[in-house]
Each structure stands twice: as structure tokens, then as C-alpha cells.
Amino acid sequence: MLIQAVSAISVAELVVYPPCFFLVVWVCLRHGFGRQAGWALLIFFPILRILGAASQLATDKDPNSTLITIALICNNLGQPPLILASLYLLKRIADGIDALPFRAARLHALHIPVSVGAVLCIVGGVNIFDSNPGNDGSAHALTQAGVCLFLAVFVCVCILAIVMYYYLGQVARGERTLLYCITVALPFLFVRVLYSVLVSFRWRSSVWNLFNGNVVARGMMAVFEEFVIVAIFIIAGFITPVIPRENVQPGLRRRRRNYQAGLAHEQQSGLAGQSAPQEPKTMRDTTLNTNV
Predict the structure, then answer these.
(1) d(CA 160, CA 147)
(2) Distance, CA of 159 to CA of 166 (rounded, Å)
């Protein structure tokens, strides 16, 4: 019965994530594949879930350690793309706020602990099936350390989201919807990270064991959350205005460049003398052109 339930989850992932992959690629083609676009990082998530689900289904017929290791690692590595996507989408919003007490570019440093955590989870997942039984405890310790790094960066992402609301009046109009979408996704991401923490630290429990634990807990705290988060980010990608590549500059400079582009367009149309736009002088007068 347990095997059938786990297989059902894997089948559901194989049904959902291939279309999601192509939708994410479409969103990336719309916004660009640059890391600052945020959505580009989501491309890795459907790939990991498809690979992990396929490996999980393969273990039903051939339960060897290699397939189980692949499924375990793919499960552990599902969080970094979601956390980093949230981070870089928030950075995209922060780039348009000049009054921030820090430089938005410094947020790039947060990808370092996520990358280190991913490496720790990979090494821990490989060592769990090491032939030396003494390495079992150290393997779980590595996974726990990696998950703790994910949790720490997630807390930073939540703090950053709160800061964005503090400066909500200075957030470009076209990007406020993106901020709202991220806000809706964060509680689901919290539940997903919490599940990983419980699986890592309570792995001896019959409920939180990743291999033979409670399937309902996994489905409601991990699989469902991931479905919702990916759907929210894809929807956000379709409704968020596109920033042209040449206009991707921090803060007021980006707004001024948008102003100049709009003025040039009106001059070419012969309308500049009738209703020329006012050049932005303060942050409250600057909003991202939602027509781009």
C-alpha cells in the first residue's frame, strides 16, 4: 500500500512537471534568462522533480541503491531553486528602490549558503548508502547542515519581503503584483522547508522518514506546496510587465531611462509638444512603465 501511494505521487509529478517546464521556459523567453530575472532558476526545479519521480518509479522494479540515491538527492535539491527564485524576484523589485539602506546587488551573496547547502545535501545523500555503516550518522549530519542553510536563507527572504512592503510606495506599479505573488508563495515555501527540517532531524520517526514515512505528510507538506509555488511563480511571470534588457538598471536611473525612451517615442509620433511627460525627480514620481 505504501509503495502504491509513493508511486502515485511520482506519477502525479511526471504528469504535472513536464508542462510546467515548458511554461517556465516560455516565461524565461519573455523576461530573459538572466539570473536577475528570477524565473530562470525555476527551470531546474521541474527537471529535478521529473528525474526524481522517474527514479522513484524505477525502484519499484529494481530497488538498487543508485536509483534510491538519485531520488533522495533530487528530493533534497528541490528547495534551492524555489528559495533562490524568490530571492532574485525580490531583488528585481529592490533594484527599483533607491531609498533602500543597502545595495540590492549585495543580495547576490545569499546564493552562496544555498549552494553550500546543496553540496552538503548531495554528499549526505550519497553517503547514506555508503558501505561503511559508521558513515550513516555523518551523512545525516551533512544533510541537516544543508537544510539549516536553506532555512537561514529562507528567513532572509522573508525579511526582505517585509522590507519591500515598508517601501511599497516606491515599488514600481508594474511590479507590485509580483511582490503580492511572492508573498502568497512564501507560506507554502515555509511549510516545504519545515518538512525538510523534520525529515532531516526526525529521520528515525515512522512519520518523517523519507523512505517509509507517512505518505500523507509528504503529499500535504511537500508535493502539494511545490505544485502551488511553481504555479504562482508561473502566473506571476505572465502578468508581470517585461523590463527591456536595455532598461535593466538600478533605481531612479532605470526610471529616467524609461522616461527618455517614452519621450523619444512621443517625439517620433509628433506628440511631444502636446503632452510631454515630466521627468521624474523623486522616487514617488517614478514608476515603471507598465506598457513595456
Answers:
(1) 20
(2) 11
Phi-psi region of 130 (alpha: psi -120 to 50; beta: other; left: phi over 0): beta
| pLDDT per residue as tens digits for the range 209-246 | 777 778 888 889 999 999 999 999 999 999 988 876 55
pLDDT of 252 > 70? The answer is no
Cα–Cα distance, 120 to 149 (Å, whole number):
10
The owner of cell 546564493 is 111
Q: What is the 3-state secondary structure (H, E, C) of 195-231?
A: HHHHHHHCCCCCCCCCCCCCHHHHHHHHHHHHHHHHH
For the chain, give percent helix, strand, coil, nearest 5.
75, 0, 25
For 78-124, what is each residue's pLDDT tens digit? 899 999 999 999 988 888 787 777 776 778 889 899 999 999 988 88
What the block records as the C-alpha cell of 283 is 522616487
**Do 21 and 40 touch, CB atoms closer than 8 A?**
no
Sign of the torsion angle spanned by Cα atoms 253, 257, 262, 263: positive
- What's the pTM value of the predicted model, to 2 decimals? 0.80
* Residue 243 Cα to chain centre, angstroms: 19
The one-character DSSP state at 130 is: -
CA angle, corner 178, sides to 176 and 183, nearest 5? 95
Contact 35, 41 (CB under 8 A): yes
Alpha-carbon distance of 138 to 1, in angstroms, equals 32
b/e code 218-242 from CB counts within 10 Å (16+ = b) = bbebbbbbbbbbbebbbebbeebbe
